Structures are given as C-alpha cells and as structure tokens.
Amino acid sequence: MKKLILLFTILFSVSAFSQIKILKNDALTEVGKDNSVSLYKKDKKYTFNYQDVANANLNSFRSFYFYDLNKDFDQLYKLISDGFIDMPTSEIEMELPQDIIGLNYGRNYGQITVQFVHYIGKNRKYVGKSQFLTKKQVDKIFGKDKKASSTTSTSTGGSFTGFAGNEETKTVEKAAIVENVASAAATKKTVKKTVKKSTKK
User: Fold this and answer.
1) pLDDT tens, 2-54?
2) Strands 45-51 and 111-119
3) CATH number of 29-141
4) How far apart (Å, rounded) are the C-alpha atoms in residues 144 and 80?
C-alpha cells in the first residue's frame, strides 16, 4: 500500500512539473536615463517612461512608445535638439500609435528646456507631463552621451518629417568636384607636352 502511494506521488509530481513552461525573458534594453525620465528599446520599439509631475501622486509613472521604422528615432532626436537652437514659441505635437505627444519648450534659470506633454490615449482630457529637461539631459536619455553621434541621412517616409537632405545640392557639388579633377588632369598633360618640346630644342 505504501509503495502504491509512493508511486502515485512520484507520477503526480512528474505530471505537475511537465505542465510548467519556462517563459522567454524578453527584457528591454536601456537606451538612456536621467532622473525621472528613461528610454528603453526592444527591437524597433522604443518606450519612454517618465514620472508624471502633473499628478498629485509623485509615485505616478507613465509611458508612451513609438516604432523606429524609417529612422524615426534619429528624426525625433533631431526634432527635439533643433528646439534648443531655435526655441519654438508654441507646443510641437506628434501623433504616436496610441498617444499624442507634445514638446513644450521654455526657459528655466536662463537656459532652454523641453517637457514631454503626454495626451494619454489621444484624449486631451487626460494629460501627463514629464519634468523639464536640458539639452544635456536629453542627450543622456537618447544615449548620445555614450558615443559620439555620427551624421546620418534621414528619410521622408518616417513618422517625423522635414529633415530630408538636399539631393540637388549634393549632385551639383559632386559634379563640380569631378570637373575640377578633370581640369587638373588636362593641365598636367599640357605641362608634360611643353616640357618634352623644350627638351628636344
């Protein structure tokens, strides 16, 4: 009887453990963080987490996300950075998959700062706000302080537009360089011919 009970217990234990599945840990990669604002990445999805200073509860944290489909990450960074050079007089708004995000610029202690204004679920009745951020803090959040940012071309097909390069100017500059090289080569040949004639005399 004891053997039967022991055997039943073992079989039950094996059956119970066979129902347990190990879940894959799809951890997010931290891009950057400064104080109460952080940015995380998973594949092409970027997620901002921030402490909502508009909420009376200081422990209230919110998040919004976007996908980096056509260099949207670089274009968003450039859009925010341009505001530190020429500060917008009104809020810049961007439509994301689930939310609307506003960029609210203002001066604090003599320097330009930016604040994320989060219209939750695209409903303007529910608003979350991040702390005001300096250019240095934005660079840290976007991970630009970890490595020197390289100049990259941007596409007009992304969510953030207005940063396409001037291809016509590039073509003209390239043509001018080719023309100068050709001219220099022709001059070199002429000089060689003149030297040969002078030697024969």
Assistant:
1) 555 555 555 555 454 445 555 555 688 999 999 899 999 999 999 999 999 99
2) unpaired
3) 3.30.2450
4) 13
